Amino acid sequence: MGNHNLSHVQSASSRLSKRLGLGRATLGVILGASLAGCGTLVPWTPLGQPTAPPQGGVIAPSAFIGMKMKDVIAKLGQPTSVQPLQETTGNLMIYAHEGEPHYVFETGSRGDVVSATGGD
Amino acid sequence: MPAPPAGLKGQHMIPTRPKSDLSFKLIELLPVIWILALALLVQPRPLFAQIAASSAAAGSTGSLTLWTDPRTSQVFTRPGPGRVPLNLGVIAAPVQHSLENQIQKQQVATTKLTQQVTQQQVQTDAVVHQVNTMRPAWQNYVDSFQNKVSIGGQFWFAYQYFTHTGWGPQYLTQENWPGPGNNGFNSFFMHRGYINLFFYPTKDWTLRLTPNIYTMIGNTSAQAYGRSSAMPNANVGNLGYRIKYGYVQWNTPFLNLGMDSIKNDKIIVGVQPQPITAWEEDLYGYRFVNLTTWNMSLSSTFPGISVQGPITFGPEHLQYADYNVGVFDNASFHAIEATDTKDVMARLSIYPFGAKWRFDGLGFTSFYDFGYGNTTPDAADLPTALKGPNAEIERFAEIVHYTAETWGIAFEYDWGRNAWSPGNMFSASGPAAVFGLTPNLPAPLALNYAAYSNLANALLNNGRSYQQGFNFFGHYHIPNSRVTLFGWLEQWNPNTSVNTNPFDFYRVILGAAYQWNEYLRFAIDTQNTLFFHNQYNFPVSYAKSFGFTPPTGFTSGSIPNVVTRDTHVFMLNVEYVF
């Protein structure tokens, strides 16, 4: 009985800690989202050029479907332009660096790539 | 103890008493035994349960057989001549058996109890396992819920310095400036503060809710508070929140029709973007800097239902068309519907060579809108010479556009009917009389302004006005840089039925945008409203042909100086979107 009570207390404590954890995670998400731009305020180096050139040759556009914008940037470097889309709340992200494969990505409202073209 | 007789040597005897004592005791006890036996016989029979209980408690009884010589009353352990058996009930052995049985039973019970405890432990473990498996499921639900919800935001802010202030339409929403005579006015403006909330319960459905910050401007009258007190108005200038978008989107209505071309099209119900504005803002790309042309007259958002999406063909699924057709209230998202009619809007974009991505290559876009002024039916049915705000409203746009990866260009022709009111003309700043207020000016000048306001109402709100516009806009990204140049040039004729309309204007916007990262853009730009006609006096007789009514006391044959001053502003804009 005592053990049961103890386990109940432990369970409740565990749930509480999980809730607190969830709350912290939520707060973290909000703060992270709020500071997302600040977190990537590192200037492009050099201007307009990819910070991380594609590795292993040209990547097929379809390979980017479902990726988050930050993951695409991690693979291809900084894009030439990113334009928020008013109609969908997504983004039109274009890679048109000279001497590099060109891509055009469109992200959806979740922030993941819903269409991708280019690679040439 | 006396020594045993010689004849009994080597024989086992009851060791505790001399045989004479034992025989005496037995003889003495015989009557008692008989009396006890009789007493037992005459006792009421116990219940079977009592027997069982007693038997169970006592265990099985045994006996000890000895032999006795009746003549001598000697007791022997072995039979012999002249000896008769002497049966004695043995108490110790049955009790021992009983105890052993009880111990065995206790052991059995203990074993059973142990088994039960073990089983209980197993069951407890199973429950614990169930609980443990339930918690990951709960966690999974939370994780899944996180995947079904997204939160975004959009923030537009600007510092604006007006070298010249005039009356005219807004460049961006949520901005107003004082009219002529206030050169040098400058201000920070918050043009947008969206919170985009999306919920995706399944892949088929999306719910969007977008609260939108806006500058509150309303009745300035104070509020009485008690018999002798009052409170000042607290509305003007506050940033309030309202719902800009709230709709449900069916993502897969055509998925199972077997028509691959329209499998991605959708149906939207709720307060949503109308077909042209958001689309054109995306084509242009710099909505955080300035409004598109029809958006100065037509709200971007209406309650209604629409069907929209791309039409694709071929193995590459190239987009050859993109459409948006909807039926909406005549009232926009920030007004109350008053009519018994509805507003129909449709946009069709054609990409003759197929577009690999949104706006890719050459495109032709047509837009048409047919609706009515937002007036209640009983008021709209009143006989009037001119329909004014009760009239039918039409808007048309034809846009030719070409978009490449680093540049885009577009030409737009607009045509409208009753689609540009004094409210649109002076959405940023206008003469006080247009809004029913009396200006703080000398009486003759105030009268002239009243006449000017009446002229605006006559030319722009008479129920038979026709609009025309020419737009040229685009952008160019400077290679190997983060800078994009952009511009919007526009000629707007609010009523082409007027020979020389003093309200005709150019809108000239030129600027450069700097992309800091994927979330943040800045722009520096100049925006100008140029009323391009030379100054002149508008003949009252001609004005009356449009329904002009001279204000009381106005006797002049012409309305003086009807071409208002230009507005010039420099802006520093910032856009932050995530």
The CATH architecture designation of one domain in chain B is Beta Barrel
Strand content of chain B: 35-45%
Structural class of chain A: alpha+beta
Extract low-pLDDT stretches of chain A.
1-23, 29-51
Low-confidence stretches of chain B: 1-24, 44-60
What is the helical fraction of chain B, as a range of percent? 10-25%
CATH class of one domain in chain B: Mainly Beta
Strand content of chain A is 15-25%
Estimated radius of gyration of chain A: 21 Å
Number of strands of chain B: 23
**How many runs of DSSP E, i.e. beta strands of chain A?**
4
CATH class of the largest domain in chain A: Alpha Beta
CATH topology of the largest domain in chain A: Beta-lactamase Inhibitory Protein, Chain:B, domain 1
Rounded to the nearest angstrom, the distance between the terminal CA atoms of chain A is 70 Å
- Count of helix runs of chain A: 3
Individual helix count of chain B:
8
Give the second-level CATH assignment, the architecture of the largest domain in chain A: 2-Layer Sandwich
Per the principal axes of the C-alpha atoms, what is the gross shape of chain A?
globular
Q: Specify Rg of chain B, calculated over alpha carbons.
A: 52 Å
The dominant shape of chain B is elongated
Mean pLDDT reading of chain B: 87
